[in-house]
Design brief:
alpha+beta; Ubiquitin-like (UB roll)
Length: 158
């Protein structure tokens, strides 16, 4: 039985072909094989959302996704949003509104918010809270995160 598979994925616009163990989770592939450490592993059960990435335009929990399931997919991680010199408007809003503390959950929240705001303009506070409800933050009361999403909605031209 062959326990290794070759996959080809596009991550943040770059194509990668790797031979990996068939049971490797996408979080570990992104972090360990590709060196993109912005995606965090938290609970490994899909509950906390810190591992959230976008696969083919939709958010997925990379801890619940086998890397082989991503074969042929386009994946975006938090590293795709902006650079140190030019932050994405969502990142700018999170800085401006103090929407983060320790930062562990932030990459997953940013990817969730990116998908949400790509599909919804002028969301209500209730809609924002519902959209981020799958991302756990143990440091904040979410108030500044919600403010950051509202600010991002105003400043992001899409």
């Amino acid at each position: 039985m062959n326990t290794e598979c070759e996959i080809t994925v596009t991550v943040n616009g770059a194509s990668y072909t790797r031979t990996i163990p068939a049971r490797k989770i996408l979080t570990d592939f992104i972090r360990n094989d590709l060196g993109l450490t912005g995606t965090h592993g938290g609970c490994d059960h899909g509950v906390c959302g810190s591992c959230t990435v976008q696969m083919n335009g939709q958010t997925v929990r990379s801890c619940l996704t086998l890397a082989v399931q991503a074969d042929g997919a386009e994946i975006e991680t938090v590293e795709s949003l902006g650079t140190v010199d030019e932050l994405h408007p969502i990142q700018k809003a999170f800085v401006q509104e103090h929407g983060l503390q320790c930062g562990y959950c932030t990459p997953g929240i940013l990817m969730t918010v990116h998908e949400f705001l790509s599909q919804r303009k002028n969301p209500s506070e209730e809609e924002i809270r519902h959209a981020i409800s799958g991302n756990l933050c143990r440091c904040t009361g979410y108030q500044n995160i919600v403010k950051a999403v509202m600010t991002a909605d105003r400043i992001w031209e899409r």
